[in-house]
Design goal:
two-stranded antiparallel sheet, alpha+beta, 2 domains, 4 strands, 8 helices, 155 residues
């Protein structure tokens, strides 16, 4: 979901990230667990030639004797330029992996998700609200009524 008239990553995707713990519940390629962005987004070509596109972080990263390693599996041999991209990906991934006890979980920015945090995320950088935000969060209309009101006004 993107703000109307905005470009780049949507406000929701930009704020949501996956907190890695045991790595079993986090998709290596598809979840935003490295710097809040998916590896699929950063390394699209590697994703394209990867055999297993839905592998978990726990299944992709191993550790023996305190040394981490990746379990890459490609459909074809990588070109030289792809190998250079792979080296960047390896450095990023191995630097981000730190397994701990517990299940992986979704986080909102640096804290848990709240409506207030989402609202603040929707505000413009200069502190003014986006034009359409007043229609959603109208103080004189009960919250449960403002969303149907927005839907009716857009038809």
């Amino acid at each position: 979901m993107k703000l109307p008239g905005s470009d780049g990553v949507g406000w929701f995707d930009e704020s949501l990230r996956k907190e890695l713990r045991d790595g079993k519940g986090t998709s290596f390629w598809l979840d935003p667990w490295v710097d809040g962005v998916t590896l699929h987004h950063h390394f699209g070509r590697l994703f394209d030639v990867a055999v297993d596109k839905v592998i978990s972080v726990a299944d992709m990263i191993g550790e023996e004797g305190g040394v981490k390693f990746e379990k890459w599996n490609w459909w074809q041999e990588l070109f030289r330029w792809e190998e250079k991209v792979l080296e960047v990906c390896k450095a990023l991934v191995l630097g981000a992996v730190s397994f701990t006890e517990g299940e992986d979980r979704w986080r909102w920015g640096k804290s848990e998700y709240t409506v207030k945090e989402a609202y603040l995320c929707l505000r413009k950088d200069d502190g003014e609200e986006a034009d359409w935000v007043k229609d959603v969060w109208n103080k004189s209309i009960p919250l449960k009524m403002s969303f149907p009101n927005l839907e009716a006004s857009s038809q």
